[in-house]
Specification:
The chain contains 16 helices and 22 strands. By secondary structure, the protein is an alpha+beta fold. The strands form five sheets. Strands 6-9-10-22-21-20-17-11 form an eight-stranded mixed β-sheet, sandwiched between helices. A five-stranded mixed β-barrel has the order 1-2-3-5-4. Helix 4 crosses helix 6, helix 4 crosses helix 15 and helix 13 runs antiparallel to helix 14.
């Protein structure tokens, strides 16, 4: 046996036992008469001591050691003279009687400790070393525990875990597909699934009325903190259900997950918010409810006073930042520069300051009386000591900019506490969204989402009015999961395809397999998918999903450890009947 115990398991009750440990050298401290070695594995760290009366071979091995050497150490567990209460193994150490070097190591390019001195790019290149660090180990352990808890809960609810294929048919809706050329079918391509959407619907047609899968999905889209080109979903589907049935099961699942994984109790009944309310109050369909600072429309209060910026605006909205009347001109200028950044896109920022002494000042007070400004402040719920911030423009664009500003202020004021959780369901989404560039409607979720039954009458006459039978689980400003009741009626599905601009021939070419399946008795069905990586980062208190994925890509979609994507040789291209086009 290479080891009798792990490096995190020994305690005071093991004193006087002879043990064998194996792991990596975290640190060596040579004090002359004695040498101390911190030996690490994924379970923890144990201090090894080599004393001056140790045999020559043991002392010689200790003298050779460097960081990340792989060792096997045998010795007696003894009580420490200077105990370390910060370490679980801090009451003991192992007096080495034998040290065997299993593998020597080059000095690593960064410190493998709680807080590393390596930058993101360097740690990504040597990800296998970064994964030895305690924060990454905790992230991987959390991910494992969450996957186990999901399977335990869903198995108890009668769900079957069924795998679906990774090589499927490409469909144009949604994000770009990753495509895979087929050697056996020249000039034809598979696509990697953006989700198993149509496949899980076929499983419902097949009679497997409760399906789930912790599944890899692929989308060729621009990256950000909570997005990777390959990611993991908890994908679920149920038959003979309405929206309320789906929400009830998965609200219970999330309550179970919060309790089981991080010991947090969440409300028995989560709040629900219509999409339009979320947009108008928070500027986002994934509102962060850990703090207030709601958006208020003030168009009716400020138009007609001669201020051209407001006169020409479709929408004018404001938020009140509590206790920020003391902001200096420099701080307000910083906020103005923030909203003018390309990522936000506002043209400027108007402010109204309510001083503690009852005075009121504004960047637009030459156009508005004190009473006019107080009416705006009152609409926003502002009081003495608060700062009102105003943005205007096209309605939903301005609302998005106010959302960015609200979140920035929440961050500055310490209101976005990672230890606090505010989950909710967002419901009643629009069925379609209009794209100005292509002058057509697109499905806001996907083309298989069922419309609200009472809105079906507007599908052809007023598609923008139609609401979807869709729902998102949102927590702390992140869309953690989402889904919908699906269309199970072939005629309604054909009508939706027509609304989306599909000819019957195009719909048949791309989705004929699903339409044909519906002819053989499709049950009413619906489901949802949770972003598993996002859920891990939420529970772990992190902003980025990257630390919860063993081998992630960087922001350019590259795996810098493997150096992928990379070129393939001419013989492979010829086998696949491919020619490369020169990049200009």
């Amino acid at each position: 046996m290479y080891r009798t115990h792990t490096c995190g398991s020994l305690r005071a009750e093991n004193v006087n036992q002879t043990v064998t440990l194996a792991g990596w050298v975290q640190k060596v401290r040579n004090l002359g008469a004695m040498t101390f070695i911190d030996l690490r594995d994924r379970y923890g760290i144990t201090q090894i001591v080599v004393e001056e009366h140790s045999d020559e071979a043991t002392r010689a091995a200790a003298a050779e050691l460097g960081r990340e050497y792989v060792l096997q150490v045998t010795g007696k567990v003894i009580e420490r003279e200077a105990k370390n209460p910060k370490m679980p193994t801090g009451d003991i150490e192992v007096a080495a009687s034998e040290i065997k070097i299993l593998n020597r190591a080059q000095t690593p390019p960064f410190t493998i400790e709680e807080h590393s001195d390596g930058g993101d790019d360097l740690r990504m290149k040597y990800r296998y070393l970064d994964l030895r660090r305690p924060p990454l180990q905790r992230a991987m352990i959390l991910r494992h525990r969450m996957a186990h808890a999901v399977r335990t809960f869903l198995d108890g609810e009668g769900f079957l875990e069924i795998e679906t294929p990774y090589l499927i048919k490409s469909t144009p809706e949604g994000a770009r597909d990753f495509v895979v050329p087929s050697r056996m079918n020249p000039n034809q391509f598979y696509a990697l699934p953006q989700s198993p959407q149509t496949l899980k619907q076929l499983l419902m047609v097949a009679g497997y009325d409760r399906y789930f899968q912790i599944v890899r999905c692929f989308r060729d889209e621009d990256l950000r903190a909570d997005r990777q080109p390959e990611f993991t979903q908890i994908d679920c589907e149920m038959s003979f259900v309405e929206q309320e049935d789906v929400i009830e099961v998965f609200e219970r699942m999330m309550r179970y997950m919060f309790k089981e994984i991080i010991g947090v109790e969440i409300a028995e009944k989560l709040p629900r918010m219509a999409w339009i309310d979320a947009m108008e109050k928070y500027g986002s369909d994934k509102p962060d409810l850990r703090f207030g600072m709601e958006i208020h429309e003030i168009s009716d209060l400020v138009k007609g006073h001669g201020f051209s910026v407001f006169e020409d605006a479709e929408y004018i909205g404001a938020i009140a930042a509590e206790g920020c009347a003391s902001y200096t001109r420099k701080q307000i200028d910083e906020l103005t520069e923030f909203v003018k950044r390309p990522q936000v896109g506002a043209k400027g920022l108007v402010w109204i300051r309510l001083d503690a002494d009852g005075g009121i000042k504004s960047s637009i007070d030459k156009f508005y009386s004190a009473d006019d400004l107080r009416a705006v402040a009152e609409r926003c719920g502002a009081k003495a000591g608060d700062l009102v911030l105003v943005i205007c423009g096209a309605k939903f664009k301005a609302l998005g900019q106010l959302c960015d500003l609200r979140l920035e202020m929440g961050e500055r004021l310490g209101l976005r506490d990672r230890a606090k959780f505010a989950p909710l369901w967002v419901v009643d989404f629009p069925m379609f969204e209009w794209d100005e560039e292509t002058q057509r409607f697109y499905a806001m979720h996907h083309p298989f989402t069922s419309p609200k039954p009472e809105d079906v009458q507007y599908l052809e006459s007023d598609p923008a009015r139609v609401r979807a039978n869709a729902y998102d689980f949102v927590c702390n400003g992140t869309e953690v999961g989402g889904g919908s009741i699906r269309i199970h009626d072939q005629q309604l599905q054909s009508l939706i395809f027509k609304c989306l601009g599909f000819t019957p021939e195009k719909a048949e070419e791309q989705f004929g397999f699903l339409m044909n399946a519906f002819r053989y008795g499709a049950p009413p069905h619906g489901g949802l998918a949770f972003g598993f990586d996002r859920m891990c980062s939420l529970f772990g208190g992190a902003d980025s999903i990257r630390d919860y994925i063993a081998f992630p890509k960087n922001n350019a979609g590259r795996d810098v450890m493997l150096d992928a994507p990379s070129a393939i040789d001419k013989a492979q291209l010829d086998e696949l009947f491919l020619d490369l086009k020169r990049v200009e």
